[in-house]
Each structure stands twice: as structure tokens, then as C-alpha cells.
Specification:
metalloendopeptidase activity; ten-stranded antiparallel beta sheet; 523 residues; Nuclear Transport Factor 2, Chain: A; hydrolase; metal-binding
């Protein structure tokens, strides 16, 4: 028998042939896909020549590509700001303090650095360090503080502080010393180590017209109080000028204090419309209380006179008068107040008339109006009057009743708290209570009623004017004061007071060395 054996190599060759053909197919498909992608990208034509076919769609597409690439380039543009180099000198306060601790200069200035000298080879400890023979300081009286506590904090001994307070109280009540008063204090040498420095002298301005000084006639003598009365002139300061583009800015430019200008505009606003009735050619006239001391200090006070000259349209003259500081015109007629104030800032939520009561459930007369307001909102009097009732008033809850002029009464109901007492006089806008929900009420609100001769009326229908009128001897005094005030010369209060013969004799002679500090004129 004959057998034919097949080669193993031929078997491998037959099995490898299909795998090779499959690999070729994959390579061919990838090459074909790549060629298609390249041809697709080439067909986009993203960067055409901008020098050809200007104005065509292809040219605008290329322009868009150019602008986009420019924006990207500018976004990644580097910063060419200069680099800051380190300073060769120390700029930190702690580093400078370390440098100064190695110097002798701080010791020469009285150890102003608060540190010992650096431990170098030149430093030798002293058995006893000398101290300053005197300490001079400036203490300030704080709000709510007392004079003796201020002196103790400054280093004055307790017994001397009490003695100084007792001496000063004999010249001026201590409670009248204003916060911010500055006190010059000089303390002497300690009698022994660890002891309190004695007070050598002390001086301060107790009032605008009074300076007090406490010192010793000799080193071991008792403390004495010296009063120095300062001459003060109270000529009012008168400022006049043209209104121009802005009344406020023109008055401030003329030298009027801010508070006086604000009070002036408020006084004018009660008599006319400042925006509409004041013209650029009008002349403002402001007189402010003013004090100038012989020592050179000046102090401006409140507005005394508000005038406005308007040519043919007449002049407006208002002067402050009375303990309440109201302004009256030249005829003695005070401030006019038109209409009534709203008792609360909220909106009206229920009107006057018949309605179904939210709690009782049946229709009844709603003899007032309701204002929507949150709990605790302040309630104010709509105009001047006298409180005739304050407290619990049945379904009205906590309430206040006020009697006004011409038989008008008002009542404010459902308060959470009453802020006035029966019999008290109240002014327009004064707080009389706070919004609540007492009595027959479904929530916080104000029920406001008005009566005329005891009959309920609709509060929304009433609008009246209240004003004051001077008469008799008071009117004569008012006119005399107004005439005297208007006779003040413009700017007369700005001149320096000439020293009297006594003041000139008491002045210390000027030293030649002090004349060097004078400013020299430029020729």
C-alpha cells in the first residue's frame, strides 16, 4: 500500500492566506477613509487669498477666518509689564525697628522706639537708668467720661485728680464740659523710684469764653486754679450772593456752613417751591449766629435769618423766633402747614363707610379708614393738638385721642404701645404710639378716625392749614429784632478782633527765634 503524506507547511500556507487578505482589506479601507477626509478638508477652503475676488462669498469667508485667528492671537498676547525688583532698603516697620535697635539715635530721642538697644559688644547694662524730668501729654475727655477718670488715665495721682476736679467744679460745672475737650498736662519728676509723678500744671478750654489753668507757684506748693476770661464778640455772620446755577453750591462757595445752608433751604421750602420759584438772578441772604474769640477761634451756630431777594416778585424774609425755633416772616406770620400728615407710611387698606365687620360678621358703619402697616411701625400725630385720651378704649384696643383746632378730633386705634400721656401737647409728626393688633382686630394695622364737633367724618375729605401769628408786644419785639439783624454788615464778623490795651499788655513778647518761623513774602 502506498500512503501520501501532506506537508505541514502547505497547511499553514492555506490558513494564513485568508488572514493576509483580511488585513489588506482593512488597510485599504483605512487608506480610502483617510483620503476622503483629506479631500473633504481641502474642499473647505478656510484660507482663501484675500487679494482675489474681493467682495465675493469666498472672500468674506476668508476675512472671517482672518478675524477669528487675530482674536485668538490677541487673547494669548503676552504681558510686557515691568517686573518689580526688591527694594534695597527695608520697607517693613518691624524690619526698620530691628535696624533702629542697633542705633544710638532712639536713645537720644528718649527711647522713642520702646525697645532696648541691641545686645552688641558696645552695650553695657546701667545700674540705674535716668528718666525724663517732665512728661507732657494731651488728654481728651471722652463721651460719658468724667474729668477725674481722664486725669487718672493720663498718669495723675488719685488724690491730685480729685483735687483738680474739685477746683475746676468751682469755676464751671463738670457736667458742662463737652466731650472732645483737650487737656494739656505736664507731670514732674518722681520724688522716688516707683512713685507717682506729681502734677506740675494743667490747662484747657472749659468754654468758648473761659480758659482754666491749674499749676503750682513753687515746686512743692499747693495746686492753684487760674481763670482766664476770653473776650468774645457775637456779631452774626451775614452772607449774600447770587443764586446762579445752584443755590446750594453758590451759598457754600460764599462761605456758608453746610448746616446753615440746609436749614436755609428747608425754611425757604416751607414758603415756596425752591426748584420752580427761585431764579438764577435772585440774591440769597443768610445770617448765621457767630462767635469770635480774642484768641482767634471762631464758632458758627444756627441759622437766624433766611432772605431771598426776587426783584419785582418781592422779597422773602424769614427770621427764627421763639423757644421752639420756628421761622416767621416780616409780618409775624409763622410756618404754614397744608393738609394733614399720614399717620403711618403704609397704604390705605379700608375706606370710610358701611362694610361687613370681619370679626362681628354683620354690616356696620366703618367710621374711619385703615392703614396697612407692620407690627411696631411708629404712629404720628397728623397735626398739632392736645391728647384727650390715651389707653384702653373697648374694641379700639390701645388708642390715643387728640383734640385739634377748630373742633377737630382724631383717634388712633389698635396700638401695640401708647407713647404719650393724657393732657400732653403734641406737634405735627410727633410719635404717639406704635402699630399693633389690640381690640377687635384681625391683624396689625392702624384704624384712624376723625370727628368734627363729635360727628364722625371721612378723614380723606379733610385738608386744612395751621399757622402761627405774632401779635401785640411780642410782634413789636420781633420786628425790632428783625430790623437790628438786617442792619448787620455783610462779612463784618470775619474781621479779627483788635486787642484791647489790657490784652496787648498781657501778651508775652515775641522771641527773635520765633520770628524765623514766619512765612516770608515772595517779592
Amino acid at each position: 500500500m502506498h500512503f501520501v503524506l501532506a506537508r505541514p507547511e502547505s497547511a499553514h500556507a492555506h490558513s494564513a492566506a485568508p488572514r493576509a487578505s483580511a488585513g489588506n482589506k482593512h488597510a485599504a479601507s483605512f487608506s480610502s477613509l483617510r483620503d476622503k477626509v483629506y479631500r473633504r478638508i481641502e474642499s473647505f477652503d478656510l484660507a482663501p487669498d484675500l487679494g482675489a475676488d474681493i467682495g465675493s462669498r469666498r472672500w468674506f469667508r476668508g476675512l472671517g477666518t482672518f478675524v477669528g485667528l487675530s482674536i485668538v492671537a490677541l487673547a494669548f498676547w503676552p504681558d510686557f509689564a515691568p517686573l518689580e525688583a526688591a527694594s534695597p532698603l527695608p520697607e517693613d516697620a518691624s524690619i526698620r525697628s530691628e535696624y533702629r535697635s542697633q542705633m544710638i539715635m532712639p536713645l537720644g530721642l528718649g527711647a522713642d522706639s520702646g525697645r532696648r538697644m541691641g545686645p552688641t559688644d558696645l552695650v553695657r547694662p546701667l545700674a540705674q537708668a535716668p528718666e525724663r524730668p517732665q512728661l507732657q501729654m494731651l488728654a481728651t475727655l471722652g463721651r460719658g467720661d468724667s474729668l477725674d477718670r481722664t486725669l487718672r488715665r493720663a498718669g495723675v495721682g488719685g488724690d491730685e485728680a480729685d483735687l483738680v476736679a474739685s477746683l475746676i467744679s468751682g469755676a464751671v460745672p463738670l457736667e458742662e464740659l463737652e466731650p472732645g475737650t483737650q487737656i494739656d498736662i505736664t507731670l514732674g519728676r518722681r520724688p522716688e523710684p516707683g512713685a507717682t509723678r506729681p502734677l506740675e500744671k494743667l490747662s484747657f478750654r472749659a468754654r468758648f469764653d473761659l480758659e482754666l489753668k491749674v499749676d503750682r507757684l513753687d515746686e512743692a506748693g499747693p495746686l492753684n486754679l487760674t481763670r482766664r476770661i476770653i473776650r468774645v464778640d457775637e456779631t452774626p455772620l451775614r452772607i449774600r450772593g447770587t443764586v446762579g446755577d445752584s443755590l446750594y453750591r453758590s451759598a457754600r462757595a460764599a462761605g456758608a456752613p453746610t448746616s446753615a445752608v440746609q436749614a436755609y433751604l428747608k425754611a425757604l421750602g416751607e414758603q415756596l417751591d425752591v426748584q420752580r420759584d427761585v431764579r438764577a438772578t435772585d440774591t440769597f441772604d443768610i445770617i448765621v449766629s457767630h462767635r469770635r474769640a480774642a484768641t482767634g477761634e471762631r464758632q458758627a451756630g444756627q441759622l437766624l435769618f433766611a432772605g431771598l431777594e426776587r426783584g419785582s416778585r418781592g422779597a422773602l424774609q424769614l427770621m427764627r423766633w421763639g423757644s421752639e425755633g420756628d421761622f416767621f416772616d416780616a409780618d409775624g406770620i409763622g410756618e404754614e402747614r397744608g393738609g394733614l400728615m399720614a399717620p403711618v407710611p403704609g397704604r390705605m387698606s379700608s375706606s370710610f363707610g358701611m362694610r361687613r365687620h370681619p370679626i362681628l360678621g354683620y354690616k356696620r358703619m366703618h367710621s374711619g379708614v385703615d392703614f396697612k402697616a407692620s407690627y411696631g411701625t411708629p404712629i404720628v400725630a397728623v397735626t398739632d393738638g392736645r391728647v384727650t385720651g390715651a389707653g384702653r378704649m373697648g374694641g379700639c384696643g390701645n388708642a390715643v385721642r387728640i383734640r385739634h383746632a377748630n373742633g377737630i378730633d382724631t383717634r388712633y386705634c389698635h396700638m401695640s404701645r401708647v407713647a404719650v400721656d393724657r393732657g400732653a401737647s403734641v406737634r405735627r409728626g410727633q410719635v404717639i404710639g406704635y402699630v399693633g393688633s389690640t381690640g377687635l382686630s384681625t391683624g396689625p394695622h392702624l384704624h384712624y378716625e376723625m370727628y368734627n364737633g363729635g360727628r364722625a367724618i371721612n378723614p380723606a375729605s379733610v385738608s386744612f392749614v395751621t399757622r402761627k401769628q405774632l401779635s401785640g408786644a411780642e410782634l413789636e419785639r420781633f420786628r425790632s429784632t428783625l430790623s437790628s439783624l438786617r442792619s448787620v454788615e455783610e462779612g463784618a464778623a470775619l474781621a479779627d478782633l483788635s486787642p484791647t490795651s489790657d490784652e496787648a499788655a498781657s501778651e508775652e513778647p515775641e522771641r527773635e527765634i520765633d520770628k524765623l518761623d514766619r512765612p516770608r513774602p515772595i517779592g
